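Open question from group meeting: does this chain pack into something compact, or does most of it stay loose? Before anyone orders reagents, we agreed to write out a predicted structure and look at it together. Recording both the input and the output here so the notebook holds the full record.
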Amino acid sequence: MKMKRLILTCLVLLGACAAFAQETTRDEYQARYERLVRNLGYDGVGIETVLDRWAADYPDDPAVHRARFNYYLEKGRSTEMVPKPGLRRFMGKQPSLTLKDPDGSDVPYFEEDFYDEEFFGMAMRVLDQQIAAHPDELRWYALKIPALCAYEKESPDMAVSELRTLIRRQASSKPSWTLDGEPADTEIFQQLVGEVCYNFFQTGSDTSYEYFKDISEQMNKLYPKNPVFLDNIGSYWQVARNNDKQAEKFYKKALRLDPGDYAATRNLQLIAKKKSQARK
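Structure tokens returned:
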């Protein structure tokens, strides 16, 4: 009799545990995940277990796929201090420290991120699966393209290819974009492309500058009333090519669209100051 009671009690407890597991809501999984990330980082101990359970209970929850992408990306990322003689900036950043070489010359050291091929590939597969299932959801592109930029560094060829495909889709079929499941208008699309362009500009390599100009010109043709992309083209001529005269043309075009455009106004002031100093 006691044995039967013991078995019955165990079965009840197991049933209660199973019921409790099923009752874990999406919000509870999200809260548990965010708490672990705050304490341990995106790839901390125990996070993969939470992600596995979360995905098993809510396989269609986009939040768990974003979290899985971040987990793999951070799991495969490492940072090293790398000497880069002769460089003042690298990937838009100043040196983290400067040391002397045996000849007494200054050698700048920069923090540089490196990515494990296997984990980076796993992170990309998470996004590619979501893009295949939800091709109009901008969030997946907003994660993928900057990640490709970080991986490719000075020559973001794959990132540009992905971005050009996106722009061609917008120009030809005008898809019904969403952002986190909500309808997204063309302003949000333009903002996403503008942020990637800024990434190219900050990278500061010859290749990334050319991509910055190319994408900005494409977007200017598609959205001629948006001054941001005119500002971008002006910045290309001003910074990458040191051609203030050509830069002025685009800044002035931007100001005709938006007289309050801060970027155009500020950069024209810098050009005017440079001219004044040259005359003196």
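Observations to bring back to the group:
The chain has twelve helices and five strands.
The beta strands are 77-83, 97-100, 106-115, 178-179, 182-183.
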